[in-house]
Amino acid sequence: MEAHEVVEETLAPVGASEGVWISTFTAAQLHERANEIDPALPLAGLTFAVKDNIDVAGLPTTAACPGFAYRPERNAPVVQKLLDAGAIVVGKTNLDQFATGLTGARSPYGTPQSVFGGGLISGGSSSGSAVAVADRTVAFSLGTDTAGSGRVPAALNGIVGIKPTRGLLSTLGVVPACRSLDCVSIFAPDLDLADRVLRTTRGRVETDPWSREGDRPLIAAPRVAVPESLDFFGDAGQEKAFARFTGDLTVDIGPLLEAGDLLYRGPWVAERLADLGEFLAGHPEAVLPITKQILETGYGFSAADAFRAQHRLQELRRAADRIWQRADVLVLPTIGTTYTHAEIAEDPIGRNLDLGRYTQFANLLDMAAVTVPNGFTADGRPASLTLFGPAFSDETLMLYARSVWAGSHSRTAPRSPASAARDTR
């Protein structure tokens, strides 16, 4: 499809989307961009969305906090690489404020639902970026992932989510959540496009102190582990869905879960204050009460607490490394259960922790991860798998994900009306 036609098909659903977009370029600006594209470029004419904590020149960066908004002078490197490859950025998408949360329900710009309806949450914090792909408004999108924000929304919207090795994609031009853990993530409807976007955006950026590269051999036939036990929070449908997958061996994931608990119950919450503390102190009224409550828990940790947690994390990293002595890939359910907006409102913090149970350890333990759909439960809720590997195992995970996708994608399920209407794009 010609680039101008793609732009026209994108404009109508953008305007009709509820709670998905924060700001967009005008029709004239998008058509001007389409005029400039060399059709020979690898991503020529593909539209994409950017989570509104990543800088896009010409649009404000809000991090879902109007009082925080600023206008960046340049694109984040990951955005610029996509533009250089011929892609068209449509606009900025909604998120849990300051990327603090996994529900998609913590924004003053509205609350998107999962494309599967029924009051189901979209997941967060990259809520808008996931929905914009799942409803086929854009071809792909960028999010971020500190605790699971590139995987939980993918699970709840039936799409692919890539959480690369930390530093593989530059976080320069990203509003920090936990600067030492943040990743830029990728959402796409399938693995082929996700892989193309990953290859376009990866690579060291010399001006980014967190950017890095590494090399790990591709493993064509990886040893695959699954957990000895899991908690599905009483959700028999999700438990049954995961049981469809079998690995080569079982492992104890207790050390991983303990590491994950450190993220929101330990001093890494205080790391969020390293970048946001000054704004929070000066503009407390600008921050949502739930976001403010979470950020302020960081004041309760001392420097000694931070060092103790780092020491314990190093022990847990060693335990996690022992998994990689036996296996090359670890497969978990992305989420143990799904929630509606009403259920999240009943217990916003506790159920947020449930959603991150099998995601929030990954960056602390320096893992790469790929999330793929895993069919549906009997009552139509989306199920999902996440494949984990050690740092720089991204190519092995992408290769193995293709075989998992072949099995899981055969388990079809209801499509959202908006998605079905644009299925011929």
Descriptive account of the structure:
- This protein has 425 residues and is an alpha/beta fold.
- It has a single domain (3-421), classed as Alpha-Beta Complex (Amidase signature (AS) enzymes), CATH 3.90.1300.10.
- The protein has helices spanning 3-16, 27-36, 77-84, 127-134, 152-157, 191-201, 236-243, 254-265, 268-282, 289-296, 303-326, 341-346, 348-355, 394-408, 417-421; strands spanning 21-24, 47-51, 88-93, 140-145, 160-163, 183-188, 224-227, 249-251, 329-333, 367-376, 382-390.
- It has an 11-stranded mixed beta sheet, sandwiched between helices.
- Helix 1 (3-16) runs antiparallel to helix 2 and helix 9 (268-282) packs across helix 10 (289-296).
- Mean pLDDT is 94; it is low at 411-425.
Which descriptors would you attach to this protein?
disordered C terminus; Amidase signature (AS) enzymes; alpha/beta; 15% strand; 11-stranded mixed sheet; 425 residues
The CATH class: Alpha Beta
Could you state the CATH homologous superfamily? Amidase signature (AS) domain
Q: Overall 3D geometry?
A: globular
Number of domains: 1
Number of strands: 11
Looking at the structure, the CATH topology is Amidase signature (AS) enzymes
The helix-and-strand class reads: alpha/beta
* CA gyration radius, whole angstroms: 20 Å
- What is the makeup of the main sheet? 11 strands, mixed
Number of helices: 15
**Sequence stretches where pLDDT stays below 50 over 5 or more residues:** 411-425
